[in-house]
Structure formats: C-alpha cells, structure tokens
Design a protein that fits this description.
It is built from 14 helices and no strands. The chain is mainly alpha-helical and 301 residues long.
Length: 301
C-alpha cells in the first residue's frame, strides 16, 4: 500500500474519523484528506507523532512509497523545488486547524484594537488614564510573552523527546522522555538565572563561533569542499576554547594579541586560516582520489 493508504489504515484501525485524527495532530481535516489521497505529505514532526502514538514504524508507512534499490541507469535527477517564503507560509497556514486560524485572526484584531485605543488615549487622555493604559499594556505584553515562552517550551520538549525516542528505536517511550525533560527543566530552573547563565555562558562562548562559521560557509559558498567547512569550524572552535579558558582565569597572552579580540571576534582570522589550509589540502591527489568514491556512494543513496 502507498503512504496515503497506509495512513488511512492506521487511522481506521484506531477507530478515528478524519476530524478526530486532524484534531489529535492539530491540523485541519483537509490536510489529513490530502495526506490520505497522496496529494501531499505531513511534516516530519507529524510523522514522528504518528509513529510514536499509533505504534507504526516508518518502514511500514513508506515501504511501498520509495523503491528499495536504486535504478541501474544513471537517470538525470530533477532539481528539488525551491522553497520560498511564500510557499513556506502557505504550507504553514494550510496545516493549521480552523480553530487555530480563528484564534490567530482574533489575536491580531485585538492587538490592533488595543494599539488604536492606546494611541487615542495618549493623544487626548489624562495622566491617570495614561497610567492605567500603560499598566494594562504591560499586563497584556506579559501574558503574550508568557504564552510565547510556553509555546517554545512545548515545541522544544516534544521535538527533543521525539528525537531521543527515535534514537532509542522505541525502547524508551515518548512519554518517559517528556517527563524526564520536564522534571529536569523544573529542577534546573530553580537554581536561579545567575547560576544558569554562569554555567551556560562558557558553553555558548565555545559553541557559537564554529556554529556561525558553518552557517556562513553554507550560505556564502554552499558548494565548497567539505574539508573547507570542517577546517574553518575547527579553527573557530580552537580559538573559542582558548578565549574561554583565558576568560575563566587561565592566562594566555597570545589570545589577547589576536585581531578583533576586544570585539569578541578573535576567531575570524583562525577560521579563515584553517579554511584556507583545508582548501589547499583538497588540491592534493590523495584527497581527490578519496573524494570520488565518497561522491559515488552519496549519489547512490
């Protein structure tokens, strides 16, 4: 059976209608109908949710959808459709349930109305009225920020639990990981913001330079050899480790001599040097010979 037929079988075996299935996945019924008819596919997090909650594996869902063996002839690969902001937004709104769409429209309308009332009160209102308006605005802003934080926490918890469940191949259930993550987060949050920042700041100082290097390389020169991105990230990582040790009390005078140290960008020059050295390594014959089998293996997969 195709993916759509297999998904329909999973839904019916659990005694659910399309509306109930869509409500469980927090999407519209039309989205479920498109999945079952084969006109579109759900997002990765929805597929993982279906596998975890309805006891079905990815192989069972897609076994008849993708051929197991690569074709013998080297057929030209069609380019992937370009994902623009318009297509991403249209896909996002298409997967929203009707209730979520109306809630979003209502939130936007209430925000515009409050902004209009606040503007009128600031223009012709008294001092006491302005004070009340500012207090109300601060309360509303606090509620909005709180809801945004809760939404982010739920998304991070569910995605992390789904990842670790997939990593353990279902040996530990999704609910166990969610419980562990929630309890761990609650315990750590009670340590106080100062202690959390004191522990997290050195880790972030080490991690963010190589991360920024990889992002910049992938955006500016996406077709560069893998050695170049690895070398540049390695140079940034080594520099960030030395700078963090110097900040924590280990005296390293050489670190302060690096360019842009005062701006916190001392990792730029080592990243460029290591990336250039890696580019020179790619010119060696041995590296080129080792690159060809790797490319052939990646093309087969």
């Amino acid at each position: 059976m195709s993916f759509g037929e297999q998904l329909q079988e999973v839904r019916r075996s659990n005694g659910m209608t399309q509306e109930q299935f869509a409500e469980a996945l927090q999407v519209s019924r039309q989205a479920v109908s498109r999945w079952e008819s084969g006109r579109s596919y759900p997002e990765v997090d929805k597929i993982l949710y279906i596998c975890n909650w309805y006891q079905v594996s990815l192989d069972e869902l897609f076994s008849q959808e993708v051929p197991r063996e690569a074709p013998v002839q080297d057929a030209p690969k069609a380019p992937l459709p370009e994902k623009t902001l318009k297509t991403a937004l249209s896909a996002f709104f298409a997967n929203l349930a009707p209730r979520e769409k109306w809630l979003g429209i209502g939130a936007v309308a209430v925000t515009l109305a409050l902004a209009l009332v606040l503007g009128l009160c600031l223009k012709v209102g008294s001092t006491d009225m302005m004070t009340l308006i500012w207090i109300a605005a601060m309360v509303i802003f606090g509620v909005v920020v709180g809801l945004a934080c809760v939404t982010t926490a739920i998304a991070l918890t569910s995605s992390a639990a789904a990842y670790f469940t997939e990593l353990c191949r279902g040996k530990i259930s999704y609910k166990v990981f969610v419980t562990v993550i929630c309890v761990f987060s609650a315990v750590v949050s009670n340590l106080g913001l100062d202690r959390i920042v004191a522990v997290a700041a050195p880790v972030l100082d080490i991690v963010y330079p190589p991360t920024l290097v990889l992002i910049c390389v992938s955006l500016i020169i996406p077709k560069v050899h893998d050695f170049v991105s690895r070398g540049a990230a390695l140079g940034a990582l080594l520099t960030s480790v030395l700078c963090t040790l110097h900040t924590c009390g280990v005296k390293l005078p050489l670190v302060e001599a690096l360019p842009l140290y005062d701006l916190g960008l001392s990792w730029l020059l080592p990243a460029a040097v290591f990336g250039l050295a890696a580019q020179l390594l790619t010119l060696l014959p041995g590296v080129r010979c080792a690159e060809k089998p790797a490319r052939r293996a990646s093309e087969k997969h």
